Automatic annotation (TrEMBL):
This is DUF4871 domain-containing protein. The lineage of its organism: Bacteria, Bacillati, Bacillota, Bacilli, Bacillales. It comes from Halobacillus locisalis.
Length: 159
């Protein structure tokens, strides 16, 4: 009886673990939620990487647009400052169900000089993101630092 219970529990854990892993790998089910820091709405991976709009674009209301326009954003990084500041990052977008990949932006990471706006972030960078008119859909965004994925999240690009 005890052996049967242990075997059953093992199967339940294994099946549950597999289902959870499959959900995490499904881009459609993994659209990144917004998170709030100091009253500001950001999208990305909370406590890792976040994108905030500048004063001319309301990212939360308008979203990322497939209009060919290059919009300016501020990218915030959370982590060990000495592992972030002075390194280059690369923001890469990969279209859902495709191998289509775009390098969105590449830049040096700086100390967080907008401390009053996002005080918990250790580092930041300005950047631009543009999606062409044919780019509507879901995209996986990956932030690379020193050739390794630092953060990943997904976004919806609206037409």
């Amino acid at each position: 009886m005890v052996l049967a219970l242990v075997i059953s529990l093992g199967v339940i854990v294994k099946v549950t673990g597999t289902e959870q892993r499959e959900e995490k790998l499904t881009l459609e089910n993994n659209l990144s939620p917004w998170f709030i820091v100091n009253g500001n709405d950001l999208i990305g991976e909370e406590r890792k990487f976040g994108i905030i709009d500048d004063s001319f674009v309301n990212l939360k209301e308008e979203g990322f647009r497939a209009d060919g326009e290059s919009n300016k954003y501020v990218f915030y990084f959370w982590g060990e400052e000495e592992e972030l500041v002075g390194n280059r990052y690369r923001l890469v977008a990969t279209r859902e169900n495709s191998n289509e990949e775009k390098v969105m932006y590449e830049q040096m990471i700086s100390s967080n000089n907008n401390y009053e706006e996002i005080p918990s972030a250790q580092a930041q960078s300005g950047g631009r993101i543009a999606f062409d008119q044919s780019d509507a859909g879901t995209w996986l965004m990956e932030v690379y630092i020193n050739g390794r994925v630092f953060s990943s999240f997904s976004i919806e690009v609206r037409s």
